[in-house]
Amino acid sequence: MSRIRLRWAGTGAVLAGLAVLAGAFGAHALRARLGEDSLAIWETAARYQMYHGLALLASAALPPLGDCRLFRSGRRLFLAGVLLFSGSLYALALFGVAALGALTPLGGAALLAGWACFALALFRAPPADASSS
């Protein structure tokens, strides 16, 4: 596996591990400190961070694709999306600053764009062998 694929796999593993940590922190340390709404926001942030950490980890296992630019863009968009989406939700839950919520849709748009890039790259990829259908 190439160094860059290993780095993306490592990034995905770090994001997923931090999502577990964030979930446990929310369930144990924050449960008594945050209201029900803020705790739900925290849990949403951790859940989406986990989904996209796992997606980055899994993407490293895929064979090289025909249009790798789309795939690379998808990975970058996932990372940016997690930072903006989950990061703004964590901050919103902890600090209650509503203005931070303005970043959340930008992060969500980045996540959606990342999935679109992945889908296009996969649909455009040449088959592994010509006998496959």
SSE topology:
Elements: H1 3-30, H2 36-59, H3 68-95, H4 103-124
Helix pairs in contact: 1-2, 2-3, 3-4
Describe this structure in words.
Helix 1 (3-30) runs antiparallel to helix 2 (36-59), helix 2 (36-59) packs antiparallel against helix 3 (68-95) and helix 3 (68-95) runs antiparallel to helix 4. The model has no long low-confidence stretch (mean pLDDT 90). 77% of the residues lie in helices and 0% in strands. It has one domain. It has helices spanning 3-30, 36-59, 68-95, 103-124. With 133 residues, it is mainly alpha-helical. The two termini are 26 Å apart. The protein is elongated, with a radius of gyration of 17 Å. The chain has four helices and no strands.
What characteristics describe this protein?
single chain, mainly alpha, 4 helices, 133 residues
Q: What gyration radius follows from the Cα positions, in whole Å?
A: 17 Å
First and last CA, distance: 26 Å
The number of domains: 1
- Give the helix level as a range of percent: over 70%
Number of strands: 0
Mean pLDDT: 90
What proportion strand?
under 5%
Largest sheet, strands/sense/barrel: none
Q: What best-fitting shape do the alpha-carbon axes yield?
A: elongated
Q: Pick out the low-confidence regions.
A: none
Q: What oligomeric arrangement do these chains adopt?
A: single chain
Order of helices and strands: HHHH
SS-derived structural category: mainly alpha
Task: Determine the number of helices (DSSP H or I, runs of at least 4 residues).
Answer: 4
Would you kindly provide a brief summary of this structure?
The chain is mostly helical and 133 residues long. It contains four helices and no strands.
